UniProtKB/TrEMBL annotation:
Lineage, broadest ranks: Bacteria, Bacillati, Actinomycetota, Actinomycetes, Kitasatosporales
Organism in which the protein naturally occurs: Streptomyces durocortorensis
Pfam families in the record: BPD_transp_1
SUPFAM superfamilies xref list: MetI-like
Protein name: Sugar ABC transporter permease
Family membership noted in the UniProt record: Belongs to the binding-protein-dependent transport system permease family.
Listed transmembrane segments: 36-58, 103-122, 134-159, 179-199, 246-267, 296-316
Statement: the UniProt record of this protein carries the keyword Protein transport: no
Protein keywords: Cell membrane, Membrane, Transmembrane, Transmembrane helix, Transport
Amino acid sequence: MPVVDQRTAPSTPRRRPAPRLAVRKGPSPRGRAHGLWPYALIAPAVGGMLYLLVYPLVRAVLISFQDFRLRQLIAGDAEFVGLRNYRTLLTDPRFWEVVRRTFLFMAINVALIMVIATLVALMVERLGRIGRTVVLCSLVLAWAMPVVAATTVFQWLFHSEFGIVNWSLTSLGFDSFERYPWFANGTAAFAILVTLIVWQSVPFAAITLYSALTTVPLELYESARLDGAGAGRIFRSVTFPMLRPIFLLVLSLEVIWTFKAFVQIWVMTRGGPGDATTILPVYAVQTALSGQRYDLGSAASMVTVVLMSGVLLLYFRQMLRQEDETR
């Protein structure tokens, strides 16, 4: 029988093992721990936000539906009265006068802030390096000043006896402004508050708009100038369409900022003289503190939130409609 050499004999092909089906296993305990770790890290921040923002809002909503006065604040046996507080509030002529003044106050402030901030941003864009640095630093310093400190400075500026404004006007020959009581005149006090809030708000809006201006390609400006467009036409046709979302954002923030302005008015005039500088946030605090009507004060706060949200929703709707038409 012949002997076959195993080294030269043809090898028999080996059968490959059948591939095993991959079985998906559930996440390991270590994987689950890693998946929960990010939520554990943000849990304290979320809990703090819920406690500081959501809980007071819910509590204010509940108080607005209760008979909540000083006795109920101490004893804690407030009774639900439904919409009675809102009916009392909405049938008060003084409340509607305050609403009218609030919208007037907001419109004047927002218009001045947006116009001045846009002009400042356009000016900073055209300045040299040194001038731009000086202006931006000045804006940041003005923006960083605490609200109460700035309000106190304005009180001293318009002080009837020691204020530099009266001294300057008297030195220029306006003798009628000698010891002029600015805060005893409703129109004058209103104008001073508008000046203060505009002065505090312009830095943020101007810096934001300037930052957005730096993103507009220079080629667009050069093309517009070659077509013979002037500065106004360039702003309307190039700058504003490119920065429309930023303008919308800044305008929305300024509406919120001016609509809920409270500290400046409360520190400077407390809503006076009379009701000349009383807007909705001040009215809510006056109602809650003067007669211990915390229920009416909460109702006024809720109406303020609803009105502010309505204004923003209407504006967003109009802006989105304009964007759809331009597409």
